[in-house]
Amino acid sequence: MVCAVGQVYAPARAGVFLWDDHVLVERDAGYRHTPVMQLFTEGAWLESPLADARAAYYRPVTLLSFRLDARFDDSAKQYHATNIWLHGVAAGLLAVVAWRLGASGAVAVI
Questions:
Q1: Would you state the pLDDT for residue 98?
Q2: How far lies 66's CA from each of 4, 91, 109, in Å?
Q3: CB burial class (10 A; 0-12, 13-18, 19+) of residue 108?
Q4: How far is 109 from 97, CA to CA, in rounded Å?
Q5: How far is CA 69 from CA 64, 72, 77, 106, in A?
Q6: At what angle do helices 60-72 and 76-100 cross, to 10 degrees?
Q7: Interatomic CA distance for residues 34 and 40, integer angstroms
Q8: CA dihedral sign of residues 53, 78, 4, 86
Q9: 13-44: string of b/e by CB count within 10 Å (b at 16+)?
Q10: Which of 25-29, 64-68, 82-86 has the lowest mean pLDDT?
Q11: Separation of alpha carbons 73 and 48, rounded Å
């Protein structure tokens, strides 16, 4: 499952930052300097025209993954690779849950 998701989304690795990525990822966002535990208790986004849209979201894992990406490479390629990997892991976990709930292996993967 993880490999299938990786293959389907592989072209995204060559992508560039789009839309809100410029504000949320490219610029010097607060999550880059905020203590790690604070990422789980409050927001760490820059003030921007997107502030109202972001206020309703509690996304500590997203902020933590952005912070780790920034430490590794800080390029769009790195952020996209992490996103593809996380998507694959989530799909794999969903297949395991379906299988444990009684679905056959093939049905769980589908």
A1: 92
A2: 24, 20, 29
A3: middle
A4: 10
A5: 9, 5, 10, 34
A6: 130
A7: 10
A8: negative
A9: eeeeeeeeeebbbeeebbbeebeeeebeeebb
A10: 25-29
A11: 24
Q: DSSP assignment, residue 30?
A: G
Tokens, residue 18: 């789009």
Q: Which residue has 């990525």 as its token pair?
A: 21
Residues 6 or more apart whose Cβ sits within 8 Å of residue 13: 77, 80, 81, 84
pTM above 0.90, yes or no: no
Tokens 């990406």 identify what position?
Answer: 69
In whole angstroms, how far apart are CA 42 and each of 25, 38, 46, 61, 79?
A: 17, 6, 13, 12, 22
**Residue that has been written with the tokens 């060559």 in this structure:** 14
What's the pLDDT score for residue 50? 54
